[in-house]
Structure formats: structure tokens, C-alpha cells
UniProtKB/TrEMBL annotation:
<dbReference type="GO" id="GO:0036464">
    <property type="term" value="C:cytoplasmic ribonucleoprotein granule"/>
</dbReference>
<dbReference type="GO" id="GO:0032574">
    <property type="term" value="F:5'-3' RNA helicase activity"/>
</dbReference>
<dbReference type="Pfam" id="PF13087">
    <property type="entry name" value="AAA_12"/>
</dbReference>
<keyword id="KW-0963">Cytoplasm</keyword>
<dbReference type="InterPro" id="IPR049080">
    <property type="entry name" value="MOV-10-like_beta-barrel"/>
</dbReference>
<keyword id="KW-0347">Helicase</keyword>
<feature type="region of interest" description="Disordered">
    <location>
        <begin position="243"/>
        <end position="267"/>
    </location>
</feature>
<keyword id="KW-0067">ATP-binding</keyword>
<dbReference type="InterPro" id="IPR026122">
    <property type="entry name" value="MOV-10/SDE3_DEXXQ/H-box"/>
</dbReference>
<dbReference type="GO" id="GO:0016787">
    <property type="term" value="F:hydrolase activity"/>
</dbReference>
<comment type="similarity">
    <text>Belongs to the DNA2/NAM7 helicase family. SDE3 subfamily.</text>
</comment>
<feature type="domain" description="C2H2-type">
    <location>
        <begin position="29"/>
        <end position="51"/>
    </location>
</feature>
<keyword id="KW-0943">RNA-mediated gene silencing</keyword>
<dbReference type="Pfam" id="PF13086">
    <property type="entry name" value="AAA_11"/>
</dbReference>
<dbReference type="InterPro" id="IPR041679">
    <property type="entry name" value="DNA2/NAM7-like_C"/>
</dbReference>
<dbReference type="InterPro" id="IPR013087">
    <property type="entry name" value="Znf_C2H2_type"/>
</dbReference>
<dbReference type="InterPro" id="IPR047187">
    <property type="entry name" value="SF1_C_Upf1"/>
</dbReference>
């Protein structure tokens, strides 16, 4: 009789009936996502055609394993069978040195490739080290030379560890050829030798070295070496206990997705109906043939296929929409694939009132990011294939979300579900809707010299003009930008305010808005920005000059009221249920009559879709302003422009193409130009030359009001041709000169060299570095404890390139300075602080075996670097591992600049150039390897005169 699996196990994953006589093991084929009630049925399935076709059959399908970083063959066997690494892969040769399968056409030249040679050298060195760490010839070196974590106060005076050398073989006489404590020492079977190693470390961080003990066997006249690794962490034991990984890092595996043939729709949150849209939002689904094409082949193959089949050969006003729609679909496909990593295979739902709560690991880190209005799908493993329930997200908390399903959905506390996160397509659909509009004027999309203003830009303000910000009147570039925008003819080409860091581009944009309103009573303005924080900044600077009847701040209904600045709240509207909406007029007036009366509407680029969505007519706005335009994709900016502009609408863009651009996940979409913002694309056109087009199409702001000249100098020369002028308030920018916080009293930049360790935990790919956290916390404490130079928490900003490090820093600083802002580079764009501390995180002793991209990741991003180092007013303090940072030419040049000016703290730099750094590391490895080979070849080779060493 076939033993059958318990029905309760099949349905609910568990059985609580103690008298149950069924088998409680389920037979699960993870390839096909089918559960079988007995082993016979399961074994028959493994030989079925469907299973073999799905898994590649006996011949196998070549797949790439991201964990092993190699190609492997997937075969139609039980997933419970341990996988075997294939020796032969069709069309490939296995390189045992690189541990990769190399395509046969590249095999002949592979051994001569630099990466192969570096890997070969590294393996040779590793083998030599492992050999020397073994006890030999009956001689043992006993002792623990890991000094563990040592507090800084103790490490400065020195910590001693003892070791013992003894022999286990009788009648063997072994003599040292090195000097210990001033004399040559010998050891026999009747004695042992005790020695000590003293560790002294003046700086926080990690130190590693190698104890090398060289022996001579007198009888055989042979030499050999025994080594022991030396390591210490100088830091805070409390910080390491608090911040260490709670669970080991295991890369999240991509699950094979189930089909979605039948989806029972859930209930959307009330906020989704807060805006009374009158238009129908297009589905804009990815065409199936395009989806197949995007998921087939290598990046290069997909790229070439898109260019050959789908994209227009020339992008102009007629093909503009088609081009960008395909880039959006390419990006959407990648975003959807990225969400697969967050699928949950064994989820529990707990019910409270009408909500089913789902715990989402990584939700606090926005991995994945879930917002009210999103959808999450669930499926019972026992349900028919393709049957899912859709849950609308009504509540988002720190670690879980509240879902509302169709009324037919009922889940018991013991049930387990497959969970799938779905991409919120509304922002994408709004962009497709805008790209489908008829507006396609060359003067906006592809301006040339033919679109230049016919009149020369005005350079003098009329005597009756009142400046809302009097400082602008004394700043020629800002003044010129405002005048050019004020007196611009309707229907002109876009005007660009090119605003490098700290030059006041948002101030200039706000002044321009106010002056346009002042000289033209019929003007109406739509002001957009990529983020809510940037849009709020525009609104908050307009509120002192405009009444709530003149200015409206439009928010997405899901926006949290607590995130809205107090000064802006009176300029918003909430419906009877407390969700952000738009004020509509009562009958018999037109429903949007109230909205038409506002002179300025401020919103994000994506939420600008609210304006045409409620029926406001094209051409209503005389001007469309976009601040921080470099951070938005071109289709995002076009939501407002293509939906609302007509032949008379003037467009004004403010931003800096040298700072952060939009974040694009698809490498294909990135290569094809989706990462290039609208303002960056325009600035590459000849008509936007900073000199020829000055005042006509562009004004570059050059007076920096933020930073000390030493902080400004390096990015100014690297990114802005040295055009920026230091004009900051001396009381602010010179605040820390001659203070004890500086290494060089006149140079307000400090690089604190520290050798740490970058960690990851659980399934988060984000890095953190506890050693740097301790150093940052120590620095913040010193700054806050300074009674002479008093500052508040709000004067300090801490920037880290990885979200995990941001969270660790916030935890560590909670008891020290809770109000200090800690965030990513993106969170600090457009902001400034008196003190900026940058924790660079990455630290690796094995950098020689990796390439630059692997080692530094997006730390080595010029735009991110530019934003990070230009936020500080008075003091810029960088904490990082110079041996890693110096791999990047830009960082290395910056570190050289700091060192040259005396701002270096900690262990000194050890390089001149990138090549020299890599060469030195390789030379050290090769020298050690040769020394070990000299001792071990033949086993009896004696050292030549002068090769005796010292132990200190």
C-alpha cells in the first residue's frame, strides 16, 4: 500500500491531529511548483515530459548561478538531490583557476588575460600562506594571536599575547636561525620556548599582519617556516555587539515564478479614489513580443535587437514618443524582474478586523519598497496553478503591511502562502499617457538656433522692480536668469538655470516665479520637482509671498500628513476622509473652476498628472518650471510638459547635470539613454553653449554661497572648469579654522584613514562597516561636546552610500545625537550642513583579486562623489579605507589633494598611482611566495648568507 501524504499537510502545511496515520512528508517539485501526495507519484513526475522540458532534460540547459558565479547545467532531477558541478558545458571550457566556464572561442587567449593572471598569482600566494601556517617536522607553534576587539585606550599602550614553540618528536634537535631577545635560541624534545608578541595600534580600525618564524633543522641542514596570522580590531566592543550581523549573509535566491492565469482582485484603499479623475488611464502593457525579446539573450543581444527591430533609427519630434515608450517598457521589465527576489514562499497572514497583515522582511530598508495603493498577490500552494488573490495595500508599518482581499478570501492562522510583490504601474502608465499626447514641438524637444529669442535678453531691471530676495540684485548671473525668464517671449525654447552646488538655483527659480506673477496678471505657473522634498522646498519659499487662494500644493492621496511641512499644510486640500485631494467647486460652477483660479500649483513630476487628469485644459499654464530637473527621467518631466503645454507655454528647467541623475535599473535602458535627463540632453545641444547662449537659452550660476574655498576647490576644478567663486558668509565657512578638529588648522577637510570590514547580513545586499560607525560616532561626540564651538545636531549631516550603513549609523547615534540627519547621497542633494561626515564603507584586503567595479561599486560614481563632497559649509570629514578608495582615479586624486594640504589623519597613504598600488600589492605577494618556495623546494635547500630574519 502506498503511503499517502496527510491532506492537512498538503492544504495547510501542518497537521495537529496526533492520531493521524498519514505520512507527514510532502513531495514538492520546486521546478514545477507541484506538491505530490506520495513518493510514487512524485517519482513518476520526475520522468514526465513536462518536468524534463521545464528543467532542461538529460542533456541539460546551461544556466548561470549568481552565487557560484559560474555556468552550470540544470538537469531534470529531483531538487532534493545535491547538485553536481558539471565538468563539461557545451561550447565552454572550465578554467579551474578562475572557477568559470569560458566560451570556447575565447579559451585560447583566456590564460593571457590580466584577470586570469591576477587570479593565478593570488591562488599561488594563498597556497603558500596555507602551507606555512601548518606545523612541520614535529614542531608546533601554540598560541592565539587574534587580539580580538581592543578598546582604543588599551591599544595605544600596547597589548601582549604569548605563544609557545615545542617539539613532539623525541631526539630531534631544532635550532632557531633568528634572534630572540638578543640571543640565538634552540629547542629540543625536553624543552619549549615561550615568546611574546606586542600589538600597538594608535588608530581605530583593523590591522592584520603575519608572524613569520624561520627554523633550521641542524641535522638535515634544511630551513622551513611556520607562520601565524596576527589580527586586531581597535574599536568599541559595545558597538560590535549592538551592530554585528544577527544572521549570516545569504544572497536572496530568485524563485521560479508561477503563472497568473486567474487573479481575484482585492480592494483598493480609499485614498485611490480621492482624486476625481475624468480621464481614462491607459493600460500601456508591455507588448508580449517585446517582453519575450527583453527576456531572451545577453544584454548585448537584447540591446542590438531593440535597436534593430523596435526603436526608430532617428529620434525626432515624430518618433519621440515611440522611442521613450520602448525605453520605459524596457525599464519596467527589469523592475518587475527585480521584484522576483522578494517573493516569499512560506508566508503567514494574521487577521485584524478587515486587514490581513503580512510580515515583509526588509520592509524598513525599502527592500522591497511598499506604499499604500500597491498590490501584493498571494496563493495557496494547494490552489490550482495560476490562481492568485490580489491584496490592496491599505496600511504600511515598519515591518508589515495591511492587505484587503476580495470578500471570498478567507485564511486560517495555520495556512501558509506564496507571496508575490507587484510593481505599481500607475507612474509608468502616466508617463505613457503623456508620451502619447500630440504635443511634439521642436522648440521644446529639439531646439536649435532657429528657436533662439529674436530679441536680446534684457540685462537691466526697471527702476520700479521690487526684488523679493534683495541678494539676487547683487548677483549678476542670478539677476540675468530672472530677467531672461521674466521678459521671455511666449512660446520660446526652454530656458535652463544651470546651478552648480550652493549657487542658489532654487532661490533663483522662486524669484523668477514671483517676478513673472508680478509683471503678468494673467500668468499661471505649474512648478514641478522629482521628489516631494524638492517640491516642498519650492512651496515653502513661496508661502511668505502668496496666499492659500493663490498657491496650491498638490499631493498624491497616499502622502502621509505628518511628512508635510507645517508652513505648507494650509496650501493643501484634504477630503472628508482625510486624504489629500484637490478643491473642487460646487455646482452650478464648473467642477475645476476653483483649481483654475490658483496662480501657482506645485507638485512632483509624476503627480503633475493630477492636473490634466481632473480636466484642466492644455495651455492653462503660461510657464512650467522644473527644479532639480537633472534627477528626473525625461518621460517623468514630460508628464507636465507634454500634457499641459501649448504653443505659448514657456518651459524653465533648473538643475545641474553634473550632480545625481535618475536611478535606472535596466542596463539596456541606461545604455539607450533613459538615464540621461531632459536638462542634460538639452545642455549637450549647441544652442545651450554656456557662452554663446548666455541669457538667451542658459545662465550658469557661478557664485557659491555654501562652502569654504578649500572644500569647493577640488570639485570646482574637476566638474566646473574652475568657474565657481567662493562667496559664503565668512562667519559660517571659517567656523572651524584653527580648531582642534582639524589636522591642518587652515584646511577644513579631514580624511581619517581606517581599515575596517564591510559586512552584510540576512538577504540584504547592502554593506555596512562597524569600524567606521564607531569612528563617526566618536567624531560626532567630540563635535557636540565642544564648548567653544557650539553647534546643534541639525548642523551635522552624515552621508553613507549604503542603506545598511545608514541604519547602523542611526542606531549608534541615537544615544549620542539623535537629531543628526543620516542619509544617502540622494537624500542630501539640494541640502547643506555646517559639518558633513562621509562614511565610505567599503574595505577589502583582497582588492587585488577583484576589479574596480566589484570592489567599489557605486562609491566610484563621479556624480555621487560630486554631491557628497559639496554639501559641507565649514567642515568636511571623510572616513574610509584609502587602499580601496584609491583604486578609483577620482577618489585617489581627491585623497592626494587632502594629503598635500595636510588634512590626513591615521595611517599614511601607500601609493603614487593606481598601477603602483596594484603593483605593490602583487609584489608583496610574489616576494612572500618566492621566499616560501625557496624554503620548500626539495625540502632541504639551505638559505644563502644574509637571508636570516628578525622577529620583533
Amino acid at each position: 500500500m502506498v503511503q499517502t501524504t496527510c491532506p492537512n499537510v498538503l492544504a495547510h502545511g501542518t497537521c495537529t491531529d496526533r492520531s493521524c496515520k498519514y505520512e507527514h512528508k510532502a513531495y514538492n517539485c520546486t521546478f514545477c511548483s507541484i506538491v505530490f501526495g506520495n513518493q510514487i507519484a512524485y517519482n513518476e513526475h520526475l520522468t514526465s515530459k513536462n518536468h524534463i522540458n521545464r528543467t532542461g532534460g538529460e542533456t541539460g540547459t546551461l544556466v548561470f548561478c549568481n552565487i557560484c558565479e559560474k555556468y552550470v547545467t540544470a538537469k531534470g532531477v529531483s531538487p532534493d538531490v545535491p547538485p553536481e558541478e558539471p565538468e563539461d558545458v557545451p561550447g565552454h571550457n572550465l578554467c579551474v583557476v578562475c572557477n568559470r566556464h569560458i566560451p570556447s572561442r575565447f579559451w585560447a587567449r583566456h590564460p593571457s588575460q590580466p584577470q586570469h593572471k591576477e587570479r593565478e598569482q593570488f591562488l599561488k600566494f594563498t597556497s603558500a600562506v596555507e602551507e606555512t601556517e601548518k606545523d612541520k617536522h614535529g614542531l608546533s607553534v601554540i598560541g592565539d594571536f587574534d587580539f580580538k576587539i581592543v578598546e582604543p585606550e588599551r591599544s595605544a599602550s600596547g597589548i601582549v599575547q604569548t605563544g609557545t614553540i615545542q617539539t613532539q618528536v623525541p631526539a630531534t634537535r631544532i635550532r632557531f636561525t633568528i634572534t630572540l631577545n638578543g640571543s640565538t635560541r634552540a629547542i629540543s624534545s625536553r624543552s619549549s620556548l615561550t615568546f611574546s608578541v606586542k600589538m600597538t595600534q594608535a588608530h581605530l580600525g583593523r590591522a592584520e599582519d603575519r608572524l613569520e618564524l624561520l627554523f633550521e633543522d641542524v641535522q638535515l641542514q634544511s630551513h622551513f617556516m611556520i607562520t601565524r596570522p596576527l589580527q586586531v580590531i581597535v574599536g568599541s566592543q559595545a558597538d560590535h555587539d549592538m551592530l554585528k550581523p544577527k544572521t549570516p549573509y545569504v544572497p536572496r535566491k530568485r524563485t521560479k515564478r508561477q503563472p497568473e492565469t486567474k487573479v481575484v482582485e482585492g480592494e483598493a484603499p480609499p485614498s485611490m479614489k480621492a482624486i476625481p479623475y475624468v480621464d481614462r488611464l491607459p493600460k500601456a502593457l508591455i507588448p508580449q513580443h517585446l517582453a519575450t525579446s527583453l527576456s531572451t539573450g545577453s544584454t548585448k543581444e537584447v540591446l542590438l535587437r531593440l535597436q534593430r527591430i523596435y526603436l526608430p533609427p532617428v529620434v525626432n519630434s515624430e518618433t519621440y514618443g515611440k522611442h521613450f515608450k520602448h525605453l520605459l517598457w524596457t525599464e519596467e521589465a527589469q523592475m518587475d524582474r527585480d521584484l522576483e527576489y522578494y517573493d516569499i514562499t512560506d508566508a503567514h497572514l494574521s487577521r485584524f478586523n478587515k486587514y490581513y497583515y503580512l510580515n515583509v522582511p526588509g520592509l524598513a530598508e525599502k527592500r522591497p519598497s511598499v506604499l499604500v495603493g500597491d498590490n501584493i498577490r498571494v496563493r495557496r500552494p494547494s490552489s490550482p496553478e495560476g490562481h492568485w488573490f490580489d491584496g490592496g495595500v491599505h496600511v504600511v508599518r515598519k515591518e508589515d503591511v495591511g492587505l484587503v482581499f476580495h470578500r471570498s478570501f478567507v485564511a486560517s492562522p495555520s495556512e501558509r502562502f506564496l507571496v508575490r510583490f507587484k510593481l505599481n504601474r500607475i507612474p509608468m502608465r502616466r508617463q505613457h499617457q503623456a508620451l502619447d499626447t500630440a504635443f511634439s514641438q521642436d522648440r521644446v524637444l529639439f531646439p536649435t538656433s532657429l528657436h533662439q529669442p529674436r530679441l536680446m535678453p534684457r540685462t537691466n531691471a526697471p527702476s520700479t522692480m521690487r526684488w523679493y530676495n534683495s541678494l539676487i540684485a547683487g548677483n549678476p548671473p542670478q539677476k540675468q536668469a530672472v530677467l531672461s525668464i521674466m521678459y521671455r517671449e511666449p512660446g520660446s525654447m526652454p530656458f535652463v538655470i544651470f546651478g552648480p552646488p550652493g549657487t542658489g538655483k532654487t532661490v533663483t527659480l522662486v524669484e523668477s516665479i514671483l517676478q513673472v506673477l508680478a509683471i503678468n496678471p494673467t500668468s499661471r505657473i505649474l512648478a514641478c520637482a522629482p521628489s516631494n522634498s524638492a517640491a516642498d522646498l519650492i512651496a515653502s519659499r513661496l508661502t511668505p509671498h502668496l496666499k492659500p487662494t493663490q498657491l496650491f500644493r498638490a499631493y498624491a492621496p497616499s502622502r502621509n500628513k505628518g511628512d508635510v511641512p507645517t508652513s505648507v499644510l494650509p496650501y493643501t486640500h484634504q477630503n472628508s476622509e482625510g486624504h489629500f485631494s484637490v478643491p473642487l467647486s460646487a455646482p452650478p460652477m464648473a467642477p475645476i473652476a476653483h483649481m483654475l483660479r490658483f496662480r501657482v500649483i506645485v507638485t512632483t513630476c509624476v503627480s503633475a498628472s493630477i492636473i490634466p487628469g481632473i480636466g484642466m485644459p492644455r495651455g492653462h499654464f503660461s510657464h512650467i518650471f522644473v527644479d532639480e530637473a537633472g534627477q528626473a527621467t525625461e518621460p517623468e518631466v514630460m508628464i507636465g510638459i507634454k500634457s499641459m503645454a501649448d504653443g505659448n507655454t514657456n518651459v524653465v528647467l533648473s538643475g545641474d547635470p553634473k550632480q545625481l541623475g535618475p536611478i535606472i535599473r535596466s542596463s539596456v535602458a541606461r545604455i539607450l539613454g533613459l538615464e540621461t535627463s531632459f536638462i542634460e540632453r538639452l545642455m549637450k545641444r549647441e544652442v545651450y553653449d554656456e557662452i554663446e547662449g548666455y541669457g538667451k537659452s542658459v545662465v550658469k550660476l557661478v557664485k557659491n554661497f555654501r562652502s569654504h574655498s578649500a572644500i569647493l576647490k577640488f570639485p570646482n576644478e574637476q566638474f566646473y572648469r574652475g568657474d565657481l567663486e567662493c562667496c559664503g558668509d565668512p562667519k559660517v565657512i571659517n567656523f572651524y579654522l584653527n580648531s582642534t578638529h582639524l589636522v591642518a588648522r587652515k584646511f577644513p577637510i579631514v580624511f581619517h584613514a581606517i581599515s575596517g570590514k564591510d559586512d552584510r547580513e540576512a538577504s540584504s545586499p547592502s554593506f555596512f562597516n562597524i569600524d567606521e560607525v564607531t569612528q563617526v560616532k566618536s567624531l560626532v561626540q567630540k563635535l557636540r561636546d565642544d564648548r567653544k564651538l557650539r553647534i546643534t545636531d541639525n548642523d551635522i549631516g552624515v552621508i553613507a552610500p549604503y542603506h545598511a550603513q545608514v541604519l547602523k549609523l542611526r542606531t549608534a547615534l541615537r544615544a549620542v545625537a539623535d537629531a543628526v540627519k543620516v542619509g544617502s547621497v540622494e537624500e542630501f542633494q539640494g541640502q547643506e550642513r555646517r559639518v558633513i561626515i562621509i562614511s565610505t564603507v567599503r574595505s577589502s584586503k583582497d582588492f587585488v583579486q577583484y576589479d574596480l567595479k566589484h570592489t567599489l561599486g557605486f562609491v566610484a560614481n563621479p556624480r555621487r562623489f560630486n554631491v557628497a563632497v559639496t554639501r559641507a559649509q565649514s567642515l568636511l570629514y571623510i572616513v574610509g579605507d584609502p587602499s580601496v578608495l584609491s583604486l578609483d582615479p577620482l577618489w585617489r586624486a581627491f585623497l592626494n589633494y587632502i594629503h598635500k594640504n595636510g588634512g590626513w589623519k591615521g595611517p599614511p597613504p601607500t601609493w603614487d598611482t593606481l598601477a603602483a598600488l596594484r603593483s605593490k600589492a602583487q609584489d608583496d605577494m610574489n616576494a612572500f611566495t618566492r621566499m616560501v618556495e625557496a624554503l620548500t623546494i626539495g625540502g632541504v635547500r639551505a638559505l644563502e648568507d644574509g637571508e636570516e630574519g628578525d622577529v620583533g
